[in-house]
Amino acid sequence: MKLKSVQVTNFRSVEDSGEFEVGELASLVGKNEAGKSALLQALAALNPHPATPVTFDLERDYPRRFLTEYSSRHKGEQAIVIRTRWDLSPEERLSVDAQFGKGAIGDGIEIVRRYGASHPEIQAHIDWGVIIRQLLDSHELTTAEREPLSKANNTKTFRAALTEIEFRSTRQTKLLETLDAFPGGTVTGAVESLLKSFVPRFLYFSHYDRMVGPGR
């Protein structure tokens, strides 16, 4: 996946960085204590490498002057620390299309991480029509077998329509078993699981050993 933009909020000295684009090469320039390291640490905690398990700690990292107002500022939800936008690589796009159908997942995938979260949240535009057709085609359902499912427009209604068929055919039964096997028993879970496998791990380090030059 290719990182396109980043926004850091509610983290140490960075109350809101604003959304900024990330190209092939990115450079952070600013005075001491301006928040450069905080931006990198927030990014590192989005999906940290086990070697540098950066985490968000509310007491330590939330802007101290607002800490007592945390609940009222975020309406009972955990505050988002980092919001990122990504594009799939051509190879990843092929993998998604092969599993869910061409155009099933739109561009501009959003990945966020909040305080208290054990993993990043992935949000993507899902074309349910494409995915449902892919499932029906891959299980080779006949026109008659598809008819009870024709009004389904998401996992919930699709599963409900399948479950309500009193005498399911072998193909309909296998289709229901496929849904049950998805993470969380939903298409959304399957999509998130595949996309999560594409998200790179971030390695953060700020201390460098002395490097010996050539010839020494």
Quick structural gist:
By secondary structure, the chain is an alpha+beta fold. The chain folds into two domains: 2-92 and 105-125, 3-Layer(aba) Sandwich (Rossmann fold), CATH 3.40.50.300; 128-195. Strands 1, 2, 3, 4, 5 and 6 form a six-stranded antiparallel sheet that branches.
Q: Could you name the key traits of this structure?
A:
216 residues, elongated, six-stranded antiparallel beta sheet, alpha+beta, Rossmann fold
How would you explain this protein's 3D organization?
- This protein has 216 residues and is of the alpha+beta class.
- It folds into 2 domains: 2-92 and 105-125, P-loop containing nucleotide triphosphate hydrolases (Rossmann fold), CATH 3.40.50; 128-195.
- It has helices spanning 36-44, 58-61, 70-74, 90-100, 128-138, 143-146, 155-163, 170-181, 187-198; strands spanning 2-11, 14-16, 20-21, 80-87, 109-114, 121-123.
- Strands 1, 2, 3, 4, 5 and 6 form a 6-stranded antiparallel beta sheet that branches.
- Strand 1 (2-11) and strand 2 form a beta hairpin.
- Helix 7 packs antiparallel against helix 8 (170-181).
- The chain is elongated.
- It starts with a strand and ends in an 18-residue tail after the last helix.
